[in-house]
Amino acid sequence: MDSEVTPVHTEITLVVNGTEHRLRVDTRASLLDTLREDLGLTGSKKGCDHGQCGACTVLLDGRRANACLALAVAHDGAEVVTVEGLARDGRLSPLQEAFIEQDGFQCGYCTPGQLCSATAVLDEADRGWPSAVTGDLSADPVLDDDEIRERMSGNLCRCGAYMGIVRAVREAARKTETEEARA
């Protein structure tokens, strides 16, 4: 029996941070490895490589996903936003600014995944999506500390910067609400 496996490659297209990329990938390659190795986008980190830590979190067609668990070929044509795509026109997003202001990181390894996940948290709350701890399912969720902790629970921080992360998400939500009220 031949123990050597011949890789199968296929052509896919990904729109990453607004730029279309046509790639030839091994059908076994994860989206994380494709982003890091083929596109040089090393912001998303390989932590556990089992979908348990959240260091690899990206936005995949607008929803957060663990890139280490997603096969690149399964997302042909998808839109992917990595931490590198959160800033606009050379300016950090309000969430990125809040992470800095509120000390939402220590070593920084988990921060890209935390930022992508927190971006999705703000979007989910804005859409009125409840979480497991949302008290009133008929009202828009309020991003209090319990809501934020629940929604961010898929992202681990070995340094324990959770208090700063919660403050940062709360601050970014407040800024977003203020900006929306002005518009």
Architecture blueprint of SSEs:
Elements: E1 9-16, E2 19-26, H1 31-38, E3 57-60, E4 63-66, E5 79-81, H2 94-101, H3 111-126, H4 145-151, H5 162-182
Parallel strand pairs: 1-5
Antiparallel strand pairs: 1-2, 3-4, 3-5
Helix pairs in contact: 2-5, 3-5
Question: How would you describe this structure to a colleague?
Answer:
Keywords: 2Fe-2S, Iron, Iron-sulfur, Metal-binding, Oxidoreductase. GO terms for molecular function: 2 iron, 2 sulfur cluster binding; metal ion binding; oxidoreductase activity, acting on the aldehyde or oxo group of donors. InterPro entries: 2Fe-2S-bd, 2Fe-2S-bd_dom_sf, 2Fe-2S_ferredoxin-like_sf, 2Fe-2S_ferredoxin-type, 2Fe2S_fd_BS, Aldehyde_Oxdr_Iron-Sulfur, Beta-grasp_dom_sf. Residues 10-86 form the 2Fe-2S ferredoxin-type domain. The chain has five helices and five strands; from the N terminus they run E-E-H-E-E-E-H-H-H-H. Helix content is 33%, strand content 15%. The longest helix is centred in the last third of the chain and has 21 residues, at 162-182. The chain is α+β, with helices and mostly antiparallel strands. It has two domains: 9-85, Ubiquitin-like (UB roll); 94-182, DNA polymerase, domain 1, CATH 1.10.150.120.
Q: Notable features of this structure?
A:
5 helices; alpha+beta; DNA polymerase, domain 1; single chain; 2 domains; Ubiquitin-like (UB roll)
Give average pLDDT, whole number: 95
> How are the strands ordered across the major sheet?
2-1-5-3-4
Number of helices, where a helix is a run of at least 4 consecutive DSSP H or I residues: 5
Low-confidence stretches: none
> In the residues, how many domains can be counted?
2
Which CATH top level class of the largest domain fits? Answer: Mainly Alpha
What is the fold named in CATH at topology level of the largest domain?
DNA polymerase, domain 1
Sheet having the most strands: 5 strands, mixed
CATH superfamily of the largest domain: [2Fe-2S]-binding domain
Look at the helices and sheets and give the structural class: alpha+beta
Order of helices and strands: EEHEEEHHHH
Strand content: 5-15%
Number of strands: 5
